[in-house]
Amino acid sequence: MRSVFEARNLTKRFNGKTVLDGINLELKGPAIIGLLGRNGCGKTTLIRHITGLYLPNEGTATTFGTPSEKLGHAELVDIGFVPQEVQLLDWMTVEQHLEYVSSFYPEWDTGRQQQLLDSLELNIDDLVGNLSSGNLQKLAIILAVCHHPKFLLLDEPVSDLDPIVRSKLLQFLLEVLQEDEATILISSHVLRDVEKIVDHVICIDEGQVTADAVLDDLKENLVEWTVHSSAGNLPDVFSEAYILEQEISGRQARLVVRGNAGELESFCAAHSVEVTPRPLNLEDMFPWLLRGGWS
Amino acid sequence: MNTLKPFFLLIQRPLVLFGAVGWMIIATFLNSQLVSKGGDPDLFMHAVYLTVVVLSVYSGWIIGSCIQELQQTSFLSLLPKSQARLLPGFLLFGSAVVLAAVLPTAASSPLPQDNWMLFAIGLGAFATGASIRDPQSVFLTGLGIALFLVLIVTSGTQARLASDHPLFVVFLAAALVVMGLYRLFSHKAVRLRAVNRGRPVLVFSAEKLVRAQKRRELVYGPKNRGWRQGYLGGSIAAWLRAAWYESYGGHRGMTLLKTVGASWGVFLVLFIEAQISGGELGFWKSIFWVIHDSLMRSPLSPLTGEHSGAFVMIAVFIIVGGASMALWRPAALSGHMLYPLSRQQRSAVMFAGSFLDMAILLFAVAPVMYFLGQLAGIAAGIQPRFDYVPLFFRAILVTLIMMPFAYWGRLQMQSAAWRRDSYSMIGISIGLSVFSAVTMVLVITSGFVFKSPATELLVLLALLVLSRLLYRTCVRSHYRTADLA
């Protein structure tokens, strides 16, 4: 694993409002990393620091070992970027835009370009200014991946895509990971999609990193128990410290617990109950990731 | 109050613009003071009618555009009784603006006049301005512009009509108000706007015409699609070529000439024709002239010969051309894309792009303006004349000196903090007004201050070098420290 981005005490303020508050973070690849957080939590701001478009007020942000203010040709040709708000040169046709952007890079994979154009069903003769927001997003994705970037930044790349295209895109990202050994940072609110492909999850809330962990570890750490008692009603409240959330109704209960399987047997013995454990999915986990109460 | 509050909440954005053009009212007042102390009373009447009409049309245009923009948002168009809530505020605001234009001029009038008549004309002009920029109908917009031109070239006739046939003038003004209100608030118009969305809050924009021109060429001229550049590499020259391509499309010079002709030339010819054939427009030079007249009347005298206003107008259009290039569409790389260029390289491209603009102004905009100006003069029966060449040259030089300030303003507006709010277009509008006014005043002052053309040329060239050096320092500093895109 190599480090592609590192933030040390990274702070960013806009008009006195702190958006990133002393973040410490290291991204290593090749991997697909999910960047999660609520609206306005600083995901886009962090991504823009990685590209060098934003500069920190305090601390440092380094991409490929170079500080963000000094990022040059050598580093930027290895970055692919799909911004949240896609703004391209709308007077060009799709074909012309592809031709134009391809001239920025020493290598451009026309085979990959054609494959994506076909797969995403984008017409090269359409004017960029006439594209729907979904098609604009497709074009931005093609523009970001045909130079085989080592670090691909996707800021809400699937928000305007239909489920079929979304599925194709996620499959394609896995191929990119394998073929280019790239690090892919994907920020999205469609957590069910993200969950299918990410290895690692970073969660930001109120300008701070609240979770930075491997997805499998998270799934081991946050588990849902379905509790059933044959002997009679369950107590009104379970007092075990590892229980994060509980919904109790008669003989049934749903608990969200933090910890390992070792607690399960002692819990069953203590309360004379049967428990069916199930790992939480990313969407269920999300509130706990924000609160930082998962570890 | 509850009825009016939503209107003022919704239009708080354009109110900033009114603050910026408040000087027009002050200038009008100063102007009327000067004229009343020894000016020709007939000219004064022209000035009064012209000022009221221009100011009212301009105010109506801004407010009307904002209302149309609001009507195009699906959010507002679906609100219950939204139009009924906009209407009273619109009428109240229009009345206030027209009163603000009428009262200062009327207060110092050396002639007896009917202020209510003037108020009615102003209200008609306000309503005309409000509906002039309706993107739904090119024909009606054309009609509105024609009406505006008629209003400004017939200020004397309006004054005579108001005195001889007051009822007819009031009827005409009322008809204009009803027509304007119908175009703004009728159910059909509102529904159309909600369906066909657009952004009418765009002041006269060269960029829009450039884009339309480029689109046409790309759609209808496949041969022109040629971006024939391989890998750009790290050369600033190659990236400069990319910046040119982003700004002006294909590489044919004709694109540029067509753009210049379409964006500024047509208006220039119309204005000159209106001035020369109007006859009764002796007083009228331009909005900038009104300011200038107010602040420094005497330096004008060397330039105010027969028909000189038309030629001065060419200089004004060169200045507006320069401001437009710097503020709307400089030869620069788009701020929205992540280019594989370091911040230092981007600053170099940005700075070098300003020289491309300089070349375009010198070798395309100025000659086209001059040629069209002479052509319009010939059409109006004036022999081609060359004694105004120094004026044009001075206008070009001062514009080039001032352009870096416009670039700098635009760079600041592009910054992340500015882009997040919706004031950028207003900022550009204010920038254009201030840039044009200040540059025009400097052009005239320069001609007045320096008696020797050689000294003037040397000083202006030195200022040109200085302003470019200053700009280079500022651009470097910006790209070293600012958030981009």
Write structural notes for this entry.
The complex is a heterodimer of chains A (295) and B (485). Chain A is α/β, with parallel strands linked by helices. Chain A has 10 helices and 14 strands. Chain A has 2 domains: 2-206, P-loop containing nucleotide triphosphate hydrolases (Rossmann fold, 3-Layer(aba) Sandwich); 218-291, Alpha-Beta Plaits (2-Layer Sandwich), CATH 3.30.70. Chain A is elongated, with a radius of gyration of 22 Å. The mean pLDDT of chain A is 89. Chain B contains 21 helices and no strands. Mean pLDDT of chain B is 71; it is low at 198-206, 276-307 and 416-422. With 485 residues, chain B is mainly α. The radius of gyration of chain B is 23 Å and the shape is globular. In chain B, α3 packs across α15 (287-295) and α14 crosses α17 (343-379). Chain B has helices at 4-10, 12-20, 22-36, 41-72, 74-77, 82-107, 115-130, 138-153, 155-164, 166-185, 187-195, 206-220, 236-248, 253-278, 287-295, 308-327, 343-379, 389-414, 416-420, 424-449, 453-481. Chain B folds into 2 domains: 5-195, no CATH class; 233-481, no CATH class. At the A-B interface, α3 of A face α12, α13, α17 and α19 of B.
